[in-house]
Specification:
The complex is a heterodimer of chains A (281) and B (598). Chain A is of the alpha+beta class. Chain A contains six helices and ten strands. With 598 residues, chain B is mainly alpha-helical.
């Protein structure tokens, strides 16, 4: 019977495609390898259901094809069978949900030793801010943004003086050091995503969102904007370089902090308040 | 009104006759061409008006999808298509397909045509409002189409219309008329739908013929009924968000707009919440998925049962599954927002509710395939489409378990995995049901069959073609290919071969699209020259096939309304001479039948 056979081929073809596909995810470069594990688990559980249901269906199509002289069976319902299937499905769903929620709990719980960094999105490029030696990011306010203060730094917050400002497409991070990425946008929604890190979160103007990860191998990775943000969305790219300690220190020494930045513009008087506050601390 | 009113006389056949619950309805009798065919109050004609309008605007969306696919795979063939146009086409394609095609077709089209016929009513309870409903919908379509012709073109904000980008200048149509016309059109649509929707619900609750208890209704009606109730609760969230965004855009209020700096300029906005919009949008948007899916579930249940000559397995479970899915669909909306920046602790709640919904949905699938077990399966074209639906829907459903499970969603959201998932589950699967339903009820509408050879060709190209489009597309998502990219494949993490896959998908999309043109040709030719079908050609049990005239005339039934004695699935009853017993056949007429369900 041709129809049953084609349906059968669709299922077999799907399985073959799955195992032979050249299109699969990139090698993971962060601690989120267990997200991949949850995907694999979901694949096995749901794939088994898909194959079972569809093979059963194509078997029925072949076995019970129309014959003039035959009558279909008459069985309106079967509570036992229906309860059995309900419970089986519930078990399958729990088997997917429980590990998923455990990993999600890890995802939303930032470890103590994570270093705060900030990624700021705007149409259509990325800026970054590192906390400097004090380990704290200075406060910002979008209303402070001017040509001279592109990050909108609060001019009276001493914690901001040593913040390292990076107005470039490249961000460097240190291998093995957990980072909490604070995400900020100044215009529309964006989403900071590196496929190899797996982690992702939208940036929403008016609020600060975050996620954390630990880079597990050195390399040069591409940043993609994953939330539609206007005509230039597809071109909003950047790079993250995961460095070993030596390279990272060298790169860091080439960057300038907010105080130096203002000095380079000859606008040190603007941050006088912050400098005073710093001394009184 | 009511030149000759109908009487409801119960004819004694020795069977107990259910009590008269519904008063006879006065009908409007059209006298001129205008009132008969244009401003018509007959639900059957209104259903066809809805369907034709929806299909017409749907064809526009089909052409847009071709252009988008060409841009992604062979950009040199569409040099006129810039990033702005691409995003405008993406937006309009999505919005048209979801709202103006699928919602209008299932509820306005099938709902209008089938509800009165299947519950045994002469017409909708409010025929005039029903007529107005269609014309308001028609106006909404015109306003939407007009946005193609205004300066700046239609909105390119994506079909989700997320602020701030929906109303900022970095988005096509964001600072012009495009977004305003979209919001106005949606608001008009909701107004029109509410008129129609109240009609469908009240007709089903109040105008069923004698003996048609709720638990004897065909599942098609249960699906349409529940979907309409969902829509009546969900669309208000859409209309208020449209109004609030229009106010933000035109009057400078800040419902959804926080303070922003747009290309170096400080805005006047302050304090609004973009995430509030997302909550409102998805409070509408998730039930919307089921507004499309539930009528499809209902219709496909009937198609499978009728063409397998076997009662639907677990009817009561099927009804409750529809109702439970409908109720749950209101508490899962934020699974569209796992990585949207809402409080991450919501993830636990919404992942749990979302995966719970998988249970009743899976039960429906089981019951469909169990219905085939020991059936007598006629591989008619409606049955082929139903089988294609099951494969497609199961495939699209299980990928919902990936995206619904919050942590699995993190790497997959906003990739082509999502595009593949929702096209499978709420694009292709319901559309296959639409096709199956059209092949099934075309004899009722026109008295003729659609051409079978063309139909088979249409089925195989559509089913296999769209499977070939969307199944491999999931794997682009695993690679990490982002959706809503005007250009791509210059990133080193994507192998060169992703480009070939993309070209394959585009070629398939164009082929599948052309197959639909053949389907339209089939409809046009067969409505005039198709093989005559006669009465009840599929030997179905439900009332729409029991009208004295085919196609059913004004008032649907003859002088007497049918009296219902049984459910709509008495197929292959042991002992009965025929392998089906229609709903209006009393027990005394089939004394030999054993164990019939009543």
């Amino acid at each position: 019977m041709l129809v049953a056979f084609i349906l059968f081929l669709v299922i077999v073809g799907s399985i073959v495609f799955h195992f032979w596909t050249p299109w699969w995810w990139t090698e993971v470069a962060s601690n989120w390898g267990n997200i991949d594990d949850t995907i694999i688990l979901t694949f096995w559980v749901t794939g088994a259901v898909f194959v079972a249901v569809c093979l059963f269906m194509s078997y029925c199509v072949w076995r019970f094809r129309y014959k003039e002289d035959r009558r279909a069976d008459y069985e309106p319902e079967s509570p036992r069978l229906e309860w059995f299937l309900t419970i089986l499905t519930t078990i399958g769903v729990c088997a997917l949900l429980a590990p998923g929620l455990i990993v999600w709990n890890k995802y939303v719980t930032v470890p103590e030793d994570a270093v705060d960094i900030e990624v700021m999105g705007q149409q259509w490029y990325w800026n970054y801010r590192l906390p400097g030696p004090d380990g704290k990011l200075g406060l910002t306010d979008l209303r402070n943004i001017t040509e001279d203060n592109p990050f909108g730094m609060n001019l009276d917050d001493p914690n901001g003086l040593d913040d390292i400002l990076i107005e470039a497409d490249d961000l460097h991070i240190l291998l093995g050091q957990s980072v909490k990425v604070n995400l900020r946008s100044i215009d529309v929604l964006h989403d900071f995503y590196v496929p190899q890190f797996r982690a992702k979160m939208d940036m929403v103007p008016g609020t600060v969102t975050y996620y954390w990860f630990t880079p597990t191998r050195t390399g040069d990775f591409e940043i993609l904007c994953m939330e539609y943000c206007g005509t230039g969305h597809y071109a909003m790219k950047g790079r993250v370089l995961v460095d070993n300690e030596e390279d990272y220190k060298e790169w860091l020494s080439e960057q300038i902090n907010f105080e130096e930045y203002m000095a380079s513009l000859n606008k040190t008087e603007l941050i006088q308040l912050a400098l005073n506050n710093k001394e009184t601390d | 009104m009511a030149a000759d009113s109908y009487e409801d006389i119960a004819v004694g056949k020795g069977d107990p006759i259910p009590a008269l619950e519904v008063k006879p309805q006065d009908l409007y009798h059209a006298k001129s061409f205008w009132t008969r065919w244009i401003f018509c109050q007959d639900a059957k004609v209104i259903g066809i008006q809805y369907s034709l309008t929806a299909i017409a605007i749907g064809l526009v969306a089909l052409v847009l999808s071709w252009l988008m696919r060409l841009q992604l795979a062979f950009p040199e063939l569409v040099p006129f298509l810039g990033a702005a146009e691409y995003y405008q086409f993406v937006t309009m394609h999505g919005m048209i397909m979801v709202i103006y095609l699928l919602t209008a077709l299932f509820l306005g089209g099938f709902g209008n045509f089938l509800i009165p016929l299947m519950v045994g009513a002469r017409d909708m309870v409010f025929p005039y409002v029903n007529m107005v409903s269609f014309w308001v919908y028609f106006l909404a379509v015109l306003v939407l189409a007009a946005s193609f012709f205004v300066p700046g073109g239609p909105t390119g904000a994506g079909w989700t219309l997320y602020p701030p980008q929906a109303i900022t200048s970095g988005t096509p149509g964001g600072d012009g008329l495009g977004i305003i016309l979209m919001l106005v059109s949606l608001s008009i649509f909701v107004v029109g739908f509410t008129m129609g929707g109240l009609n469908y619900v009240i007709t089903i609750l109040q105008a069923r013929t004698r003996g048609m208890t709720l638990m004897r209704m065909p599942l098609t009606i249960w699906g349409i009924f529940t979907a309409t109730v969902l829509a009546l609760f969900a669309f208000p969230a859409l209309i208020v968000s449209c109004i609030m965004m229009t106010l933000d855009n035109l009057l400078g209020t800040s419902f959804f707009m926080p303070a922003i700096v747009e290309f170096g300029e400080q805005s006047e906005y302050s304090g609004g919440s973009p995430i509030l919009f997302q909550h409102l949008f998805w409070f509408f948007g998730h039930p919307e998925v089921y507004i499309v899916a539930l009528p499809a579930f209902g219709i496909v249940s009937d198609l499978i049962s009728i063409h397998a000559r076997k009662n639907i397995f677990g009817y009561r479970m099927m009804v409750w599954a529809i109702v439970i899915i409908g109720a749950l669909s209101f508490i899962v909306w934020a699974h569209h927002m796992y990585v949207a920046g809402m409080n991450p602790w919501f993830g636990f709640f919404f992942a749990t509710t979302t995966l719970i919904i998988a249970v009743p949905t899976a039960l429906k699938v089981y019951n469909w395939v169990i219905t085939l077990w020991k059936g007598n399966i006629q591989l008619t074209i409606p049955m082929l489409f139903a089988l294609g639906f099951i494969v497609t829907f199961v495939n699209g459903g299980i990928t919902g378990l990936f995206l619904g499970n919050v942590i699995v969603d993190v790497p997959l959201s906003d990739t082509y995995f999502v595009v593949a998932h929702f096209h499978m589950v709420m694009g292709i699967a319901p559309v296959l049901v639409v096709f199956g339903a059209i092949y099934h009820w075309f004899p009722l509408i026109t008295g003729r069959f659609l051409h079978e050879g063309m139909g088979k060709f249409h089925f195989w190209v559509t089913f296999l073609g769209s499977y070939a489009i969307y199944f491999p597309m999931h794997y682009l998502g695993f690679v990490g290919v982002p959706r809503r990219y005007y250009e791509m494949y210059d990133s080193e993490f994507m192998a060169v071969s992703t480009n070939y896959l993309n070209q394959f998908i585009t070629v398939m999309a164009i082929i599948v699209g052309f197959a639909q043109l053949l389907f339209l040709f089939n409809i046009i030719v067969s409505s005039k020259f198709g093989k005559l079908s006669g009465k009840n050609p599929w030997k179905a049990c439900s009332l729409e096939w029991r009208t004295p005239e085919v196609p059913p005339g004004h008032g649907n039934f003859g002088k007497e309304l049918p009296v219902v004695y049984r459910w709509a699935y008495d197929f292959s009853v042991p002992g009965a001479k025929e392998d089906y017993i229609p709903q209006d056949v009393g027990p005394s007429e089939v004394p030999e039948a054993k164990a019939e369900q009543t």
